[in-house]
Amino acid sequence: PLAARRHALEVLRGEVAACDRCSELFSTRLQPVFGTGPLDAEVMFVGAAPGPDEDARGEPFVGKGGQLLGRMFAACGFTREQVH
Predict the structure, then answer these.
(1) In the list 4, 7, 59, 84, which could disulfide-bond 41, CB 3.0-4.6 Å?
(2) Of 76, 6, 62, 2, nearest to 31 (Cα)?
(3) CB-based contacts of 4: which residues, under 8 Å, 6+ apart?
(4) What residues are paired with 83 via a beta bridge?
(5) R_g of the chain computed on alpha carbons
(6) How many helices (H) and strands (E) are present in the chain, helices listed first?
(7) Residue % of the chain over a pLDDT of 90
(8) Across residues 37-41, what is the average pLDDT?
(9) Apex CA 82: angle with CA 81 and CA 84, to 5°?
(10) Nearest CA among 52, 46, 17 for reference residue 32
(11) Mean pLDDT throughout 65-81?
(12) pTM for the structure as a whole
């Protein structure tokens, strides 16, 4: 159910925010970057470590790579709002 999924992701979000195992990343990041979009999306993308644009905004895929990804979504018939 979506409520359980939402709760599990909130718990994970808290763990990510508190995690300091990657000391180099932890010492330089401004904020954790976690997923966005509907929890029941047909498609989910998982990326590597966030870049400076993502770190500054706290949102995934907002830099140049994210712009390309947005065009790829559109070519596949999706909007960013449909993808997690």
Answers:
(1) 84
(2) 62
(3) none
(4) 43
(5) 14
(6) 4, 0
(7) 45
(8) 89
(9) 85
(10) 17
(11) 93
(12) 0.73
